[in-house]
Write a structure and sequence with these properties.
Structural class of chain B: alpha/beta
Helix content of chain B: 25-40%
Structural class of chain C: alpha/beta
CATH architecture of the largest domain in chain C: 3-Layer(aba) Sandwich
Oligomer: heterotrimer
Radius of gyration of chain B: 17 Å
CATH superfamily of the largest domain in chain C: Response regulator
Number of helices of chain B: 11
Strand order of the largest sheet of chain C: 4-3-5-6
Strand content of chain C: 15-25%
CATH topology of the largest domain in chain C: Rossmann fold
Number of domains of chain C: 2
Largest sheet of chain B: 6 strands, mixed
Radius of gyration of chain C: 20 Å
Distance between the termini of chain B: 35 Å
CATH class of the largest domain in chain C: Alpha Beta
Distance between the termini of chain C: 20 Å
Strand content of chain B: 25-35%
Chain lengths: 286, 236, 336
């Protein structure tokens, strides 16, 4: 019995790290731009399909394909910013909400046309390690480690580089940052690009462990929202912790209760946190 | 030599016109002050100069170059630096990071070490708190940090918007001491203040603004002696 | 009306008196898996039922649970997963904790395929896995060895060996063409193998033809009486309708059970249940595949049980008559 627990904890941890990575993308965009990115899930789904196509059409091994996904995410994100968001960035939040929602509709609409809504899967295996009933899949370990690595890189970027500091400055006060000579329009576009790149790479990583459809992003988008609230908006580390909490709930708590209660628990947590500690467990600014 | 020459500036918010053709000149190495009561359009005027709000009409000439249409950050790159009202420091960053942000532009980055030396000689207290989060500083220290951060940008002209706002009298005097020191260092400054008495005492030249227009101008002494100013702003 | 493609029980307790069902209804979709399991291993007791939270799968699972309990099984896990679930780890962990001998359930294709794949990745040690829908679909082979020895119900398979002899054994009449004839003619007409949808549609026409022949008239009420009395064997299996509370429900036809096996290194479907229809022996327990060269060994036999019939002839040409049925069926299937 104990081995089942250990297995669940490891599984929850590894999955939680990916959830965390996805949430960081959402978090960064909210923190810097005060935009609730409703196209988050759609871009995750896009990441899944990009990595799938790279793998099936060009034979690029998914973990190397990630580099391309990130580059593409940056470009697409920045493009999306200028096309859809730039003109409404100073408008009330409803406008940006609708703008990102329309981007999401666009991606999912085209995606459905091209790929239909049937499931796809990336069939790779990195083997597995077993001790008794504990079986850890290589692919899950890889996604967990990559998620940690990406979070660490993002952290260093935000705290140690000039551009990263500018992003944090913009998140704290855009006018002040502009008055320091920061091209805040570029920084906003860049932040959106990074957020999208993170969403897409999280999607790509998830695609290496689970099957997916063009609609799969929605589920993870919801999880990302819960994680952001849980971990505190604007805190990358908080998002990672929030992700792990969610992964644990899904894998460990369900040993004792029916799995169908998971959304109930998740959203109860959401409401409770909003009521009791709106800044999140590790609340704070970027 | 004229550093900043603003000609017939008109601007406002949405449909509402706030500035009705404001013209001022700031001479190099001098301290120029704009005084005026609340709502007279002083802050709006500075925002329009910096490009934070759009200019409707008029021209902004900086060192002989028309910069009216430039974006805010490009103006900063040229050396037009503003310390905004309410300080707007970056609260979650350390004091040092705030100063580094001040030196964000290429031009300023090259001279960061010199700037830091200058800033720390002016504000030794900031040096002690270099790793402290800026949000945890006291109000006076935050204002010093804001000025220091402005200096890090290596300003050709330093624009100060109500630096004494919300400060205790003792700290207000300290801030004016600092401004005086900067003036002696040769920093060109445009100061907007409600504290008429203290600012007129140190300024080279001053404008009085009311309802979006310049209604009076002259040297600090002239204005201090003017009946209008005495009646309206000094309560004498 | 003869419906094909519609497997819901609840169509038939609404008081309609002219709807007759060709498919084995949901309530008996997985009960055969339990019979098969019992036959293969009379000592096995623990069953986990994990199903998709949709009307159809839930009906199937609920009926299977009742049947399991009535037949002395212990249902150690009975739980639904949300439609579209891609991560079954929490279910798998529970399964690992409860150590069942068999897992039955599923829902649709994608979830069933994923579930089977993740069971394999986690090397879940159960003796029998039987899932709805997915194993019956050829694409199930995509998941490779994860598909091996997984079983699942199907309404009909070209491999099903319903014959005149099996009809005779049951003492009922054989009607219509043989399995081989149907298979051959279908391939000639359409160029690919018939699936159970096609067989069901054809059977619907066949049944209607038989009913009209028996009635000797096209009068609705007479044909209805003939259908009520009908108990025949066809290439598609036995056909008999309930006339009680669930009027018109199919009670003669049995699901066949497929198992993915390896032949010459390739994954193929074999019918392993019921005995009357089987084309190969059930490989039991399925966990043999985790062994190094699991492949060809350890075949245990499921025995007993019959159901058969006997042939008769007569090609049915009334596919056209079934068109209405098929369209209704399609609509209903969409819903499922």
């Amino acid at each position: 019995m104990i081995d089942v627990w250990v297995d669940s904890i490891i599984g929850g941890l590894l999955l939680g790290l990916v959830y965390g990575l996805a949430a960081i993308g959402l978090n960064l965009i909210w923190g810097v731009m005060k935009v609730i990115n409703l196209s988050h899930g759609a871009f995750m789904a896009l990441g899944m399909f990009v990595i799938y196509l790279l793998f099936t059409a060009f034979g690029i091994f998914p973990y190397f394909g990630l580099v391309i996904v990130i580059g593409l995410g940056l470009v697409l994100g920045m493009l999306t910013y200028f096309v859809a968001l730039h003109r409404v960035i100073d408008a009330p939040e409803l406008s940006t909400l609708l703008a990102t929602f329309s981007v999401s509709l666009f991606i999912i609409g085209v995606g459905t046309f091209v790929f239909t809504t049937i499931p796809y899967a990336i069939d790779i295996s990195l083997g597995s390690i077993s001790f008794g009933n504990i079986t850890i899949l290589g692919t899950k370990v890889a996604t967990g480690l990559i998620s940690i690595a990406f979070t660490a890189i993002l952290y260093v970027f935000l705290y140690k580089t000039r551009l990263g500091k500018a992003i944090r400055a913009v998140s704290m006060n855009r006018v002040a940052a502009e008055l320091m000579g920061v091209n805040t329009t570029f920084i906003l576009a860049l932040s959106f690009g990074i957020g999208i790149a993170l969403a897409m790479s999280a999607g790509a990583l998830i695609a290496t462990i689970f099957p997916f459809t063009i609609l799969s992003g929605g589920v993870y988008e919801l999880k990302s929202f819960v994680i952001c609230v849980l971990g505190g908006l604007g805190s990358p580390l908080g998002a990672l912790v929030g992700g792990i909490v969610l992964g644990m709930i899904e894998n460990v708590v369900t040993l004792q209760i029916p799995t169908s209660y998971v959304p109930v628990i998740e959203f109860s947590i959401l409401v409770l946190i909003l009521l009791l500690k709106p800044s999140g467990l590790l609340g704070g600014k970027v | 030599m004229i550093t900043l020459d603003v000609q017939n500036l008109e601007s406002g918010y949405g449909e509402v016109k706030v500035l009705w053709g404001v013209s001022i000149k700031v001479k190099k190495g001098e301290l120029t002050t704009i005084i005026g009561s609340n709502g007279s359009g002083k802050t709006t005027f500075l925002k329009a100069i910096m490009g934070i709000i759009p200019v409707w009409n008029g021209k902004i000439i900086f060192n002989g170059e028309d910069v009216t249409k430039l974006s805010t950050h490009s103006k900063v790159e040229k050396g037009i630096v503003m310390i905004p009202e309410g300080r707007l420091i970056f609260p979650e960053m350390s004091v040092l990071e705030n100063l580094e942000m001040g030196a964000y532009t290429k031009r300023a980055m090259d001279r960061m070490q010199d700037s830091l030396d200058l800033v720390f000689s002016l504000f030794p207290r900031l040096k002690e708190r270099i790793q402290q989060k800026a949000g945890t500083l006291s109000g006076g220290e935050q204002q010093m940090l804001a000025v220091a951060r402005g200096l890090m940008s290596v300003p050709e002209i330093l624009i100060l918007d109500e630096p004494s706002l919300g400060l205790a009298p003792k700290l207000t005097i300290e801030i004016f001491e600092t401004i005086k020191k900067l003036k002696n260092e040769g920093v060109t400054m445009l100061l907007v203040e409600q504290n008429v008495h203290l600012s007129l005492a140190i300024t080279d030249y001053a404008y009085v603004m009311a309802e979006g227009k310049i209604v009076l101008e002259g040297t600090g002494e002239e204005l201090e002696r003017s009946d209008e100013v005495r009646k309206a702003y000094l309560g004498i | 009306m003869i419906t094909t493609g519609a497997a819901s029980d609840s169509i038939h307790n609404k008081g309609y008196t002219h709807i007759f069902q060709i498919y084995t209804p949901a309530s008996r979709y997985l009960t055969g898996a339990l019979d098969m399991f019992k036959a293969a291993d009379p000592n096995a007791k623990k069953v986990a039922i994990v199903y998709e939270n949709s009307k159809f799968a839930k009906d199937v699972a609920t009926a299977a649970k009742a049947y399991a309990e009535k037949n002395g099984f212990e249902v150690v896990l009975f739980e639904a997963y949300a439609p579209g679930t891609t991560d079954f780890s929490s279910f798998i962990n529970k399964i690992l904790a409860k150590k069942p001998d068999a897992i039955i359930g599923g829902g649709h294709f994608a979830d069933g395929e994923t579930f089977a794949k993740q069971l394999y990745e986690k090397k879940v040690d159960v003796k029998l896995v039987s899932l709805l829908v997915a194993p019956a679909v050829p694409e199930f082979a995509e998941i490779g060895d994860a598909a091996l020895y997984v079983t699942g119900p199907s309404q009909w398979e070209p491999l099903a060996k319903y014959t005149r002899e099996s009809a005779k054994a049951l003492g009922i009449e054989w009607y219509g063409l043989s399995v081989e004839e149907f298979d051959k003619e279908y391939k000639e007409a359409y160029g690919y193998d018939p699936g159970y949808h096609a067989a069901g549609g054809y059977a619907a026409g066949l049944v209607l033809q038989k009913a009209i022949e028996d009635a000797g008239t096209l009068d609705t009420e007479e044909v209805k009486k003939a259908l009520e009395k009908m108990d025949i064997m066809t290439f598609y299996g036995r056909i008999k309708f309930e006339t009680g509370k669930y009027y018109g429900r199919q009670i003669g036809h049995e699901m066949v059970y497929l198992q993915w096996q390896k032949k010459d290194g390739k994954l193929v479907k074999e019918v392993v249940w019921p005995d009357a229809a089987k084309s190969s022996e059930l490989v039991y327990p399925m966990t043999t595949k985790y062994g190094e060269e699991a492949k060809g060994k350890a075949k245990e036999t499921a025995e007993e049980k019959q159901a058969q019939e006997k042939p008769k002839s007569t090609p049915g040409f009334e596919v056209a008559l079934a068109i209405a049925g098929i369209s209704v069926a399609y609509l209903l299937r969409r819903k499922l």
